[in-house]
Design goal:
single chain; mainly alpha; transmembrane helix; membrane; transmembrane
Length: 100
């Protein structure tokens, strides 16, 4: 079972990782670029495409995980505080006492 704190910290980590990769990795890739064969350019294009995909997706997934962690913590607190208000199905077909 997922725990809210774990989901929250993974979301923070993914968000920070995506932002850091977006800022640092393109600079590092272009500094490592040497005039060479066409294979070097192809590898650079492949790496740049992968980095752009990762830096585009990781922060969004991270923020969604942060939001999910907050909602999970809120719901966990509500369930622990008032378990008598949880929804239960009645298997015997009876109606609630206040129903007509």
């Amino acid at each position: 079972m997922l725990r809210p704190a774990v989901v929250l910290w993974w979301g923070i980590g993914l968000t920070v990782l995506g932002v850091v990769l977006g800022l640092a990795l393109p600079w590092l890739l272009y500094n490592q670029q040497t005039p060479g064969a066409a294979m070097d350019q192809g590898m650079l294009v492949l790496l740049e495409t992968a980095v752009r995909l990762l830096t585009g997706v990781a922060p969004l997934v991270g923020v969604a995980m942060i939001a999910a962690g907050i909602v999970m913590a809120y719901l966990k607190r509500l369930i622990e505080r008032a378990p008598e208000h949880t929804f239960r199905l009645r298997g015997d077909g009876s109606t609630p006492p206040d129903a007509p």
